[in-house]
Amino acid sequence: MALMHHLSTSISSSSSAFLGQNAFNSRTQKVSVPVKNRGIPRCVATPPTEKTVYKTKVSRNENMAKLQAGYLFPEVARRRAAHLLKYPDAQVISLGIGDTTEPIPEVITAAMEKRSHALSTLEGYSGYGAEQGEKQLRAAIASTFYRDLGIAEDDIFVSDGAKCDISRLQVLFGSRVTMAVQDPSYPAYVDSSVIMGQTGQFQKDEEKYGKIEYMKCTPENGFFPDLSTVARTDVIFFCSPNNPTGAAATREQLTRLVQFAKDNGSIIVYDSAYALYMSDDNPRSIFEIPGAKEIAIETSSFSKYAGFTGVRLGWTVVPKELLFSDGFPIAKDFNRIVCTCFNGASNIPQAGGLACLSPEGLKAMYGVIDFYKENTNIIMDTFTSLGFNVYGGKNAPYVWVHFLVEARGMCSVRFLRRPTWLLLLAAVLDLAVKVLLGLVPLVTGAMS
Amino acid sequence: MALMHHLSTSISSSSSAFLGQNAFNSRTQKVSVPVKNRGIPRCVATPPTEKTVYKTKVSRNENMAKLQAGYLFPEVARRRAAHLLKYPDAQVISLGIGDTTEPIPEVITAAMEKRSHALSTLEGYSGYGAEQGEKQLRAAIASTFYRDLGIAEDDIFVSDGAKCDISRLQVLFGSRVTMAVQDPSYPAYVDSSVIMGQTGQFQKDEEKYGKIEYMKCTPENGFFPDLSTVARTDVIFFCSPNNPTGAAATREQLTRLVQFAKDNGSIIVYDSAYALYMSDDNPRSIFEIPGAKEIAIETSSFSKYAGFTGVRLGWTVVPKELLFSDGFPIAKDFNRIVCTCFNGASNIPQAGGLACLSPEGLKAMYGVIDFYKENTNIIMDTFTSLGFNVYGGKNAPYVWVHFLVEARGMCSVRFLRRPTWLLLLAAVLDLAVKVLLGLVPLVTGAMS
Question: Which of A403, B9, B205, B401 is 20 to 30 A from B276 (CA-CA)?
């Protein structure tokens, strides 16, 4: 937390009006997100000399033991909460998860109210839903996002969010696959891979896990990996628009990626959770690239479109054409996972999701997106006018700014060794410049 | 489906008024549950000679390949749907999942309506919630179900259901643990164990997976395993009241089970999803047994209490006192799983869950439970009066009836070899006698 405090001070001293609250699309007055009780269980750390503590004879899962620190975002939230407890008046600029702050449009919440009420009536009550999601919603997702792409209703699996589906996909793949990931990128890909036992130990010197292929994405390569240097892996996680750099791959780049996967017989897990934020004419879906249905899975979410971060609703597309090496359809195994390890998304959010995809819902959803895009523009303009190199932002609610950090200045001890790229997650939180300050390498590997 | 058709015929011929609709607490007129589109993806099974099908070079997860057939309940639903498609006028007695049919009490849905609406307002909007659940709900669960048992708010992890938590626990344990399970029992324990690679191959002759310790629970042993014959395993799944036999373990039996686990250093995963259905004075929670906090995890759900099967809300208790052999708290690893592989239950159902635990909500919830218990009694009385041996029912919405099935009578070819126990899941579906006819051994091992 000290690092955030320093940053906050540093920003104020650079420019007193810098990122001032009034410059933003900000409807609330709160400076920091409400402090949540993350409830990290207190460890029983009584020294054995004082009392004999009973231990089971079950060995801890060695993969869990490989994980470094806590999952990134709860860890940031925990430090923020601890800091605020110590300094209640601190004006903390949250560097945590890209949370939403805009209310959900009423046309969408009204549908959820209606479904909630219906559940109290004989006619409107329903019990277990289809594990894959309600037929109408699956059809609406297929026709809204994948029209003319050959993706059918039954290729869509509705879920409680893309993050949860990423883990379910890892369970499906099992421990023997190898994986590649953009560096930097959303931490859930790597962490879930570690948990499933796909990786080696964490290498402290490189800040990378063994056996993961980290695909460097920097301004030097236009945030797109040099595929000629990337080793073949079974699975390639690819997030575009990227969280956190904000870079969106072009049609030409994605065509190369699909060809790369096809040549290697790899599966791309394509995370398109920010697709509707794109301003440029890049593909919104990997399935816009010919042949992608034979090598790709796509996961997406209503979280950042309609403010569903707490409501929990997403989907994953597993085309029938996607086959394991023995010809077995991957969708069939994913269906088995969804039926065995999940019971479908809550029916009330599904009613909300269907409302999102009505003509009025879509219009309202774009209103929310535009609000966050305006914030993104303000942040980009501000940093640009201050002379920083600014990337991202145009096709995503994420802005990536190059800071050359001086030793002992505003950076944590962990990164004194070298100039560091600091990450700006912007706009999704109303007035916040969300800087994942130096924490990113903990999870996604070193950035130079 | 043919087997259900036979059963239906058979039942009708035994007694024309047998389980007639009017005998039940039945508010709806539907005979079968609405046919859901389970959307099992169609397999691409084109012979390679006809067309060259592209296959990735990714090997199918060998653990997925071990799984027999589909997950039990979607498979039953699929067969039911197929049958109804062929015979639209068939009066199918559903033998599928124990679904709820009673509307959710309005005091509970009103809270969900209110929360849905609040999400459209500046004051009421919230984004990502705590992965472990809302503080108020965790506190209410702790004080409602675990008062005086030494279980605190931060020992409770709110989830989208017990089934989902069972899989998350399996991911936490990893592939190297061994497991024991009641035979028969809810199929998710075994299937998730297979998926995680804890088991050997399926042994067709025994109808069991290798490396799983099946603990026989029959009328002969009072549906409680003879622990002197049970091998030590790392994890013991124990469901009480049991799904599907309806048997609930007594305090004395659970005390023996806890001692057995303690002697072996095992972890009990105790599924208490039907605890509130108990009429006898058996423990409602494993934590009523002294010392259980050092060896047990408990999972439960609002599904069968408040009709939340489609709303999705449950919880899991992982006490701080529960430690791996190296002294590491299991709750800390479960917290990591919940943060990395899950993003918390939907906020709207959580508002509903909190309303369930208000004085009015609790009263309404017990009303729903009493409705299903009445149905259970009718089924028990009916079968008893027909001369069958009837078990369960008193402490659970499940009735277990002994049928001596004649060869080529009403039983599927698969079970012609021997007398078979047929399972009656009753009462949760209004007028349905839910008979898991012979399908159970597919999943939970042979029953004599």
Answer: B401
Q: Is the N-terminal amide bond of B241 cis, ω within 30° of 0? A: yes
The C-alpha angle with vertex B17 and arms to B11 and B23, in degrees rounded to 5, equals: 110
Find residue A215's DSSP bridge partners: A182
Per CATH, the number for B108-359 is 3.40.640.10
Continuous segment of H or E residues that includes residue A298 = strand A296-301
d(CA A436, CA A94): 9
For chain A, give every domain's residue range.
2-31+59-103+362-444, 107-359
What is chain A's pLDDT, residue by residue, as a tens digit (448 residues)?
Answer: 333 333 332 322 233 333 334 445 545 433 332 333 444 444 445 455 557 899 999 999 999 999 987 777 777 788 888 989 999 998 776 656 778 999 999 999 999 999 999 999 999 999 999 999 999 999 999 999 999 999 999 999 999 999 999 999 999 999 999 999 999 999 999 999 999 999 999 999 999 999 999 999 999 999 999 999 999 999 999 999 999 899 999 999 999 999 999 999 999 999 999 999 999 999 999 999 999 999 999 999 999 999 999 999 999 999 999 999 999 999 999 999 999 999 999 999 999 999 999 999 999 999 999 999 998 898 889 889 988 889 999 999 988 888 765 433 332 222 222 233 333 333 333 223 333 333 222 222 222 2
User: DSSP letters along B383-395, please?
Assistant: HHHTT-EEEE-SS
- CA dist B249 and B270 (Å) reads 11
Look at residues B273, B98, B74 and name the one whose alpha carbon lies nearest to residue A339.
B74
Provide the token pair at A201.
Answer: 């130990």
Q: Which two tokens stand for residue B307?
A: 């009709």
Asked whether the beta carbons of residue B106 and residue A120 sit closer than 8 angstroms, the reply is yes
Of A109, A121, A326, the CB nearest to B116: A109
pTM: 0.84
Phi–psi pair at B252, nearest 5 degrees: -65, -40
Q: Is the bond leading into B105 cis (omega within 30 degrees of zero)?
A: no
- Give the separation between CA A54 and CA A50, rounded to whole angstroms: 13
Confirm if B409 and B13 have CB atoms less than 8 A apart. no
Task: Flag whether residue B124 sits within 8 Å of chain A, measured between CB atoms.
Answer: yes
Nearest to A349 among B48, B125, B346 (CB): B346
**CA nearest A38 in B: which residue?**
B130
Helix ranges (H only) for A281-420 are 303-306, 330-341, 347-356, 359-385
How many beta carbons lie within 10 A of that of residue A113, not counting itself? 23
Does residue A241 have a cis bond before it (omega within 30 degrees)? Answer: yes
| Domain A107-359: which CATH number of 3.10.28.10, 3.40.50.300, 1.20.58.90, 3.40.640.10 | 3.40.640.10
SS3 A19: coil
SS3 state of residue A289: coil
Chain A residues near residue B125 by CB distance under 8 angstroms: 101-104, 307
Contact B255/A at CB under 8 A: no
How many A-B residue pairs are in contact by the CB < 8 A criterion? 403
